[in-house]
Amino acid sequence: FVNDFERVRDPSHHWAYREADWRRLFEAAGFEGLVVEGFRKRRDFEYWTGMMSVTEPVKARLRAMLEEAPPSAREAVPPDLREGKLGFYLSEILILGRRPSSHPRSR
CA-to-CA distance for 104 and 69, rounded, in angstroms? Predict the structure, then answer.
């Protein structure tokens, strides 16, 4: 759902990786001692759609996707209505790691 939702707004969107995917990518790049912190970030619907200058029909489709999403999708991208303004939450992660000084790319 997340990738479909993002691609409707931004056709250049490639993929929203899961935490496990990001961990594998960092480890494959030689990073060690990974510390991962997850959090949810609220997005204002109008601002979020405005960043890509989407048309009104696309906004309507995105709004419908949020409002009519099945329970599993609503869990992944929970809609949020505040003071009459539509928003939603996206999960994000912050990853910290270090590359050993012996790693060829650390020089």
Answer: 47
